[in-house]
Amino acid sequence: MGRTSPSHDATPTTSTRWIAPVVLPVAAVLLASALLAPDPDGAPVASVITAALLWGGILVAIALVVAAVPWLIARFHRNQDPPREGAPSGALASARIWPALAVVSGFVMLTSLSGRIPRLALFEPFEHNWQGKILDLLWVGILFWVLRRWAREEAGMTWRLRPGSARRALLAIAAVFTIFVGLSLLSVVLDENAHQQTGLEQVLFNLTIPNLTEELIWRGAMLAVLDRAFGTPWRLGGAPVGWGLVITSVVFGAGHMILLSPDGAFSVNVAGGVFAAGMGVLLAWIWAYTRSLWPAFLLHCAPEVAVDVAMLATG
């Protein structure tokens, strides 16, 4: 079954039975943090969570603005051209799109909270935010388990790649890895200060849960929901894509451009945002091309692990 084919199976937009079990672990860790770490890094939990909700709200607003573009285009064409026979009405289109945007907004807010809940004592010794990424993995894993047929058939939670897609996908992953190894080595040759110390935790962080959770959430859950709503009328390198790719890539980029520190301070990294948006397009392409999340996960790991390899090679 294609990702945008009609289905009577439960999806995040046609069923509500996933909501309570998905929200529960985030709420539980939030409560535990408020009780056990009420004043992390000198900032009250309430102010940190408020900032996280604001950050998530900004991303949701950006998603809605981008999603309005195809609606405006469609409305313009309806005003200019007579309706085509068999074309869906605006009401039917809205009936698909608004629930999809509501669900995606919920996913954005969940990952915003998960990643910014103050760390419990168990996770404080680590340099990286394992707590947030494990919590992300927990709630999206519950989502995929509750709606497992949808996860397998539409979100790409399958080891089976689209026939004939493996070779091209592997070439893309290898190319990105090689490019970033080369660029990283060159940067150290040109400037010794570009070298960064890389430890075991860094390598494990870049090889495991963090990149997996982002692909499960952004390319699996969000893109599957948006592709069902908006359809995939375009072709990009042989992959069926649509406005879902545009929305997720722009918001993914915005999430890496608008930064929020653990104490609730905002900053902006334009270069990081542009790079993340470009990677978002590439990740959405490989997900749609292979119809599996696993190549997207490997591609997501490729640039970060490439930098680690280069830093380790240069001592």
Radius of gyration using CA atoms only: 20 Å
Shape: globular
| Largest sheet composition | 2 strands, antiparallel
How large is the count of helical segments?
11
Structural class: mainly alpha
| Low-pLDDT residue intervals, each spanning 5 or more residues | 1-7, 84-92
Share of residues in strands: under 5%
Strand order of the largest sheet: 1-2
Beta strands, count: 4
Integer average pLDDT:
89
Q: How far from one another are the termini?
A: 49 Å
What is the share of helical residues? Answer: 55-70%
**From N to C, what is the helix and strand string?**
HHHHHHHHEEHEEHH
Fold and architecture overview:
A hairpin with a 2-residue loop joins strand 1 (234-236) and strand 2 (239-241). Helix 3 (90-116) runs antiparallel to helix 8 and helix 9 (243-257) packs antiparallel against helix 10 (270-290). This protein has eleven helices and four strands, in the order H-H-H-H-H-H-H-H-E-E-H-E-E-H-H. The protein is mainly alpha-helical and 315 residues long. The strands form two sheets. Strands 1-2 form a two-stranded antiparallel sheet. The protein has a two-stranded antiparallel ribbon with strand order 3-4. The protein has helices at 19-36, 45-80, 90-116, 130-146, 148-153, 166-190, 200-207, 209-230, 243-257, 270-290, 293-313; strands at residues 234-236, 239-241, 258-260, 266-268.
